[in-house]
Structures are given as C-alpha cells and as structure tokens.
Design brief:
By secondary structure, the protein is α/β, with parallel strands linked by helices. It has 3 domains: about 120 residues, Periplasmic binding protein-like II (D-Maltodextrin-Binding Protein, domain 2, 3-Layer(aba) Sandwich), CATH 3.40.190; about 90 residues, D-Maltodextrin-Binding Protein, domain 2, CATH 3.40.190.10; about 70 residues, Alpha-Beta Plaits (2-Layer Sandwich), CATH 3.30.70.120. The strands form 3 sheets. It has a 6-stranded mixed β-sheet with strand order 2-3-1-4-11-5. A 5-stranded mixed β-sheet has the order 8-7-9-6-10. A 4-stranded antiparallel β-sheet has the order 13-14-12-15, with helices on one face. Helix 4 links the parallel strand 7 and strand 8. It is globular, with a radius of gyration of 24 Å. It starts with a strand and ends in a 6-residue tail after the last strand. It binds 1-O-pyrophosphono-5-O-phosphono-alpha-D-ribofuranose and zinc ion (ZN).
C-alpha cells in the first residue's frame, strides 16, 4: 500500500484526480475525505493544501505527492522529483499595477513585493542584484497592491485571468512550473514496485495526451513519402486496400501538428482521412 498526497482544492486538484482515474485508480467522490482508499489499487489518497505536500512527503506522511514544481523549489524539503506530469503548466512571475512605467527589473529596487514564494523571489533578486522588501503572505496575493499592502506581486500565472481581474500586468517571468511527482528519500521495495507500476501508467497517459489516431487511404507509391512526413512515428501501419495500387495508412499524430500534417498528406495523394481520438499509448 502506498499513500499519495494530492491537492485538496485548487488548480491541480481536478487534474490530479483525473490522472489517477485514467491510471485506473478510483476513489468514490463522496469518500473524498482527508484520507481515502482506492477501491482497486493498493493506494490511499491524502488530500492536502499544495503548500504542505512537499513536507508531508519529506516526513514520510505520504510516500509520493503530486504537486507543482514551484512548491518543491520554494519549500526546499528533501524530496526528489521523480516524474514530470505534463499538466498544470504555469509560471512564477512578477506583476505590477497596470499603468506603471516599466523599463527593467530595476523597477523593483526598494519596492514592496507580496508573495507566497519568498525564497524563489529572494534567489531571483539576488541574481539580479535587486534589493527590495519581500512581504510573505499566504493567499490572495493578487489583491495586495490594490489595498496598499504592496507595490507589486510575485505569484503563479496560468491563464493570466487573475492578473487582469486585479489590474496587474506581468513584467518578468522568473520560473516555469508544472505538476510533478515527488518522492521521499527511501521506500520499501514493495512500495517502490507499486510506484514503478504507477509511473508506467502515468507515462502511457502522458504519451497519449493530445495524440490523434489518423487513418487514410493513399496510393501505395506515396507511402514512403508519407512516412517521411511523419518522422516522429516509429513505423506507420500500412494495409493493402482491395483496390489495386491503394493502401491504407494508420498513424498517431500530435494534435498540435494535425492540420499541418493532413494538408501535406493530402498534397501527396492521401484521401478519406479519418481522425479518431486516442485513448492510451502503451509502449
Ligand atoms: C494560483 C495563483 C492565482 C491563480 C492564477 O493559485 O495564486 O490565484 O493560480 O491563475 P490564472 O492566471 O489562471 O488566473 P493556485 O491555484 O496555485 O492556488 P494557491 O496559490 O491558492 O495554492
Ligand atoms: Zn498553495
């Protein structure tokens, strides 16, 4: 049995639960108390504030945790990041009130900056040779300038909606972050085995995220050129059609380059293109 700490509420909560359920780990919604046991995998889920997850894992209260890299870097607890999850992308940025004249990071010299990430900000200011007043506050950082508590903020920016709502503009991106899996120093072999199994599933899920399964017909003579257009594919599946000289090709294509690739494939004779969603890619 292993215990996984995830965020109780906030940006990463839903996506963490979704990841676990895609990995076949289900916790009934009405049993989402502080600690809940999965019904079909040797796992317990511990719901915590994201800020507390690195410490919980460092202390062994949880064996692994799903948390933003920003929290890991801020807290500096002895945990290792064992896997990147590819979701929860955001950045830690400095933002100032809209309308302020801003030319360089020197703007921050002597200013008061509200943040929940004082260590990361301190490190950054040290590198930039800026001396400023850092005010650590636990939440609602974005309202600090409008109530006169600070001149600027240093906080997580994801869509940017929170900044806009509070009349702030992002001026310096200090760090990129995303959700990661963290683990403590030493675990029993039994626990290690469960974690390996889990990470294998997470990998398969990440691999298939944003991928589409594409089927098309094309003249067999165009197959080589079509394969060359899809360098990421190990080897496309080619099946003969009943109609002589025609083949069917099956490949997985990343959604981000789907239309681009489809136009190229059409230009070399591909027809009857079907794009299907792809559930899991297991290596
Ligand atoms: C962060 C941050 C902002 C919001 C920014 O909070 O504090 O409130 O996300 O996102 P946006 O750019 O999409 O508007 P988070 O969910 O990480 O929770 P926490 O800071 O309360 O732990
Ligand atoms: Zn938090």
């Amino acid at each position: 049995m292993i215990r996984i700490a995830i965020q109780a509420k906030g940006r990463l909560n839903e996506q963490s639960i979704e990841l676990l359920s895609e990995a076949g780990i289900f916790v009934e919604a009405n049993r989402r108390t502080l600690l809940a046991k999965a019904n079909n995998f040797p796992v317990e889920i511990l719901y915590l504030r994201d800020d507390d997850i690195p410490q919980a894992v460092a202390m062994g209260v949880a064996d692994i945790g799903i948390v933003g890299r920003n929290e890991v870097e801020e807290k500096e607890f002895p945990v290792k990041m064992i896997h990147s999850l590819g979701f929860g992308a955001c950045r830690l940025s400095l933002a100032i009130p809209k309308g302020e004249k801003y030319e360089s990071v020197q703007w921050f010299a002597g200013k008061r900056i509200a943040t929940s990430y004082p260590r990361i900000l301190e490190r950054y200011f040290r590198q930039q040779h800026i001396v400023a007043e850092i005010h650590t506050i636990a939440g609602s950082v974005e309202i600090a300038p409008s109530v006169g508590m600070a001149d600027a903020i240093f906080d997580i920016v994801s869509s940017g909606a929170t900044l806009i709502k509070n009349g702030l503009v992002e001026v310096e991106k200090v760090m990129e972050s995303e959700a990661v899996v963290i683990a403590g120093k030493s675990l029993s072999t039994e626990k290690e085995a469960i974690i390996t199994q889990l990470l294998f599933r997470f990998d398969a899920i990440a691999r298939s995220r944003g991928m589409k399964y594409v089927l098309m017909n094309l003249p067999c003579e165009a197959v080589e050129r079509a394969a060359a257009l899809l360098p990421g594919v190990k080897s496309p599946t080619i099946l003969p059609l009943q109609q002589k000289g025609w083949c069917s090709m099956h490949v997985a294509i990343n959604e981000s380059e789907l239309w681009n690739k489809i136009e190229l494939l059409k230009s070399i004779g591909a027809q009857d293109i079907l794009v299907l969603s792809l559930e899991k890619m297991i290596p």
